[in-house]
Amino acid sequence: MSPSVSNILDSNETSKMGPAKTSMQELYAGPEDWDAQRETITRLYLHERRSLQEVMELMALEHNFLATCGPPDPSETETT
Predict the structure, then answer these.
(1) Cα–Cα distance for residue pair 31/36, rounded to 1 Å
(2) 18-72 pLDDT, tens per residue?
(3) Which of 6, 15, 65, 67 has the smallest count of CB within 10 Å of its CB?
């Protein structure tokens, strides 16, 4: 059984990618992180046909990349 993303969040260990991040803002991937990992995510999801859960776990474990959808963009919300 592979560790879940919540286990990674609870871990204070230093990863091969550097020291553990400390603030919530630092914890989750920002736009520059997405750009840097775009090819890897595309390969895993589209070309290797892995599930979203698998991609999320691999990215967290192997690349120290934790994604979140973040707050909704006000320009994308429907108004009635």
Answers:
(1) 9
(2) 555 566 667 888 999 999 999 999 999 999 999 999 999 999 999 999 987 655 5
(3) 6
66, amino acid identity: L
Strand-pairing partners, residue 15, are 18
Cβ distance 9 to 27 under 8 Å?
yes
Tell me if 2 sits within 8 A of 57, measured CB to CB.
yes
Give buried/exposed letters for 16-39 (b at 16+ CB in 10 A, else e): eeeeeeeeeeeebbeeebeeebee
Token reading at 11: 């871990």
Judge if pTM exceeds 0.85.
Answer: no
